[in-house]
Structures are given as structure tokens and as C-alpha cells.
Amino acid sequence: MSDSPRKTVLTAAQPTGILTIGNYLGAIKHWAKLVDEYECLFPLVDMHAITVPYVPAELRQRTRSLVAQYIACGLDPEKCNLFIQSHVTGHAELAWVLGCLTPLGELQRMTQFKDKTAKGSPINSGLFFYPVLMAADILLYNADLVPVGEDQKQHLELARNVAERFNSNYSETFKIPEPKIAATAARVLSLQDPAKKMSKSDENQGATILLNDSPDVIDKKISRAVTDSGSEVKAGSDKPGVTNLLSIMCGFSGRSIEELQSEFFGVGYGDFKKRVAEVVIEGLRPIREKFESVNDDKAYLDGVLKEGEEVAQKKAYKILSKVHRKVGFVERFR
Ligand code: AQP
Q: Is the distance from the beta carbon of residue 223 to the nearest atom of ligand 1 less than 6 Å?
């Protein structure tokens, strides 16, 4: 089914803002380790980003910037494929076919949709259809493995179901994608409300640390992060704020929670936070420097995206032609 003897990995981020240390520690840092072993496709999913309110000029700018952020985080375009989802029309085309195989009830069960509708803001049908588009993103390249966080497991399950349904209705076509969960991936929480995850689109700027935040800003945000009652630097369900800071420090330093707890035994919250800020600033320094050096190089970024698009387009066309033939569409004339 695939040209490559290597397994294919596909995973994505939405260009909805500058990446946070949550996106980095929970996802991209781990993706960067896969490029030597797997054939990796990392689409920038701009079509998913328009399922929620957005500003067109910002989306365009954020999509370009996301390529630079990916490269800065270690996704080497020489070793993996970076491209824009909307540049490969097969994503939308396959989503339509898969949508026609997806019972309404399956989409109504998606907890992410239910959560977003519960917030009461106006909902469009694109948001409802989001999991089908995600299934198309994956199946269009016959991906073997999909690195996902807990929050995306249900969507991947839907992709697996729809692939199985297609194979059983129309004969074997798609591989059934498997989740790939990095054992050490952190779930980074909001600095202002550790009951929710850190999100790049959070309107409260104090809640997130962005990959291009300056050392001063990082220092301020961490010093103002909410902590918990008591004064001990210790992880636990009764101390979500401190646990989050410890886990951020683990992510950047590679040290375990236990080691950090012993180091900070008897140390107050203020000094602990200063140390967390230093580690985050040092961890982000090379990323910020690389980002600044590539973000303005439009010719280089365009070259990366153009090459990515060509590779993705070729792969997508192969699968899509097969799908069109199987579902009974007349062969295209070009
Ligand atoms: N706080 C987080 N901790 C760990 N992992 C996270 N991811 C996101 N936030 C955290 C992981 O980052 C990858 C890319 O995410 P995405 O851009 O596709 O969408 P998202 O999960 O909705 O990320 P955000 O930052 O919360 O975006 P917005 O604000 O637009 O909704 C995924 O692998 C995700 O699990």
C-alpha cells in the first residue's frame, strides 16, 4: 500500500497561534525523534483551523509562522514532510467520501464536539465534521502510526472505524492506523487555571508560555503562575499548580519528578519558580533563536512547503484514485 519500506507516521497541529510549551513538550519534541526511523508527514492543518472563529489574515500569517516554529522545534524538513493541508485538495475530497460512510450518531458522540458546544458559542457544521476530515488526513497517506494525545484518541478511533468500514464495503484499501503515544509526553496545564490544559488560543496571556516569549516574559509568567495551598514543592492531586511546574521542569531538564522534589525539599515557592523559569528560558533559547533566524526567510519557507506539497500530492493522488475507482466514480480525464 505504501511505497516506502519504512512505516508512515502522520500527525498535525493547527495554525491557531504561536505554539506553547504544551504543544512542544506534549507533542512536537517527540515527533522530532521519529524522523530517522519513520517516514513522517506533518501537515499544517489550516482547514481544521477554520472550524472555529478566526481572522483570515491572521490564519495566513500563523500558517507561515507555524512552519518556522516546526523547524525551530527540530522538525528537519530534510528528513520529514512539512506541507499545508489546504494545498492538497485530496484531504477535502476524501473527507467527503468518508463522510458518506460515517453515521451521524458516531459524530454526535465525539466528546470534543460536545465540550465545544457546551460552551454555548455558535457552532458550524465544519466543527461537527472535523473528525471525518481528520480521518481523511490520516487515511489519505495510509499512515501506520498517529502520535496523539489523550484528547485525540476518540477521533483516531473514528478514523479506524471508517477505514474498516470502507475496506469491508469496497475491498481492502486502507491500513488501519494505530495510535502512538509517547510514554514521556507531558500534559502541560494552564499557568492560571491548572484544571485545564495550556492552549495556544487561550485569551489569558498569563496562562501560556509561547515558544517565542522573551526571557523576561517567561520569568514574569512563571512568577505569577498559580500555586497551591501549603508551602512544600511536591507533586500530588491536591497540588495541581506545583505539579504542573514540576512537570514542565521535567520536560525541559529530562530529570524525574522525584529528583526535583528532593532538590526542592525545604525551598519556598518563590525560589522554586525562579529555578523553573531559568530552566524554561534555557530550554527555549535555541528554539527561539532558530525561529528568529528562519521566520523571515520567506524564500526558504516557501521552498520547504512547495517540496512538501509535491511529495504529499503524489502520495494523495495514488490513494484517492483508488478510492474514486472503488466507490464508482468515472475515471478523471487528467
Ligand atoms: N497543553 C498541552 N499539553 C500537551 N500536549 C498538548 N497539545 C496541545 N496542547 C497540549 C498537543 O499538541 C499537538 C498539536 O495540537 P493542535 O494544534 O492540533 O491542537 P490542540 O490540541 O487544540 O492544541 P491547542 O494548543 O490547545 O490549540 P487550540 O488553542 O487552537 O485549541 C497535539 O498533539 C496536542 O495533543
A: no
